Automatic annotation (TrEMBL):
<dbReference type="InterPro" id="IPR004358">
    <property type="entry name" value="Sig_transdc_His_kin-like_C"/>
</dbReference>
<dbReference type="Pfam" id="PF02518">
    <property type="entry name" value="HATPase_c"/>
</dbReference>
<dbReference type="InterPro" id="IPR001789">
    <property type="entry name" value="Sig_transdc_resp-reg_receiver"/>
</dbReference>
<dbReference type="InterPro" id="IPR005467">
    <property type="entry name" value="His_kinase_dom"/>
</dbReference>
<keyword id="KW-0472">Membrane</keyword>
<keyword id="KW-0547">Nucleotide-binding</keyword>
<keyword id="KW-0067">ATP-binding</keyword>
<dbReference type="InterPro" id="IPR036890">
    <property type="entry name" value="HATPase_C_sf"/>
</dbReference>
<dbReference type="Pfam" id="PF00072">
    <property type="entry name" value="Response_reg"/>
</dbReference>
<feature type="domain" description="Response regulatory">
    <location>
        <begin position="111"/>
        <end position="225"/>
    </location>
</feature>
<dbReference type="InterPro" id="IPR003594">
    <property type="entry name" value="HATPase_dom"/>
</dbReference>
<dbReference type="InterPro" id="IPR036641">
    <property type="entry name" value="HPT_dom_sf"/>
</dbReference>
<feature type="domain" description="HPt">
    <location>
        <begin position="236"/>
        <end position="328"/>
    </location>
</feature>
<keyword id="KW-0597">Phosphoprotein</keyword>
<keyword id="KW-0812">Transmembrane</keyword>
<dbReference type="GO" id="GO:0005524">
    <property type="term" value="F:ATP binding"/>
</dbReference>
<dbReference type="InterPro" id="IPR008207">
    <property type="entry name" value="Sig_transdc_His_kin_Hpt_dom"/>
</dbReference>
Amino acid sequence: EEQLVIKVNDTGIGMTDAEQADLFTPFYQADSSISRQYGGTGLGLNISKSLAEKLDGTITVHSHVGSGSEFCLTMALYMPARVRWITSFEEISASTAKELPSQCQRNLVGEVLVAEDHPENRELIKRILERMGLTVTAVENGQDAVQATLDHQFDLILLDIQMPIMDGEQAIHIMQATGITTPIVALTANTMKHEIDRYLKQGFIDHIGKPIDRSEFSQKIASYLDIEMHEEVKLPEHEFAALKQVYIDGLKAQRNTLTKQYAEGDIDGFSQSVHMLKGTAGMFDCDTLYQHALKLDKALKADRVILDSQLVSNVLTEIDDIVCHSTP
């Protein structure tokens, strides 16, 4: 089997054997001071090695402290019929440019990655997709989503925008760097025109607004995956009721978090919690809570010097009312 071998040498500080052993691990950097000084996520070499392996090759490193490093990329060379090697750049310019045949659009087959940090939202979306006959991988943050795309190929990716550890906008940039062409859709409660335009410029093919309309959601997913929908996809009532009860059971903890953040003046944390509440309440048909959270979220984004305490009270009171009247 023929291989292409590319070696790159530097005269840098070099690495120990222990550092070389972990060098291709995701989110690893041999010297933590590098990320503080120059930035970066520690994903570059892991992504590069993953791409090399997809080309039936690999990347290796040989290094000595104080005397630099040598990286070696190998990849398999496959020679299709009527293809020959060239030996100089002149042969390229002398050849007649030929238009490549257009590729037929690939029909997607139903492998979906969902990245959503709220557990009940994530489970609800997963159940809806599975009811459509799709295979679903669900993760809770952008970092896990990036790793999933390195380990497996998907036909569609749904990325929540606001997530801990790594958000959706950071995740899509890293995914694009790996060369994936999978359609990526933004899941977001940020539905202002300038926000949507920003997502589209970043490479998202579309957005699905929160709270998600379950009927519209299934129709959109079907269109992305080229699946013919003969009837509306609905969760059985008992399944949705069980998921909703789990959501309601968690509202008390969310209320405590909101109260603590508001009392301590943690406006950034409070704003994030309200934004999440807005995106989840409507998903589980808590419409009054959604409306109160929506108004409070708008007020927080308006960056007012003094926040109307009645808006906060309305949200907390509605949570109390939902919890009080829920059936365990």
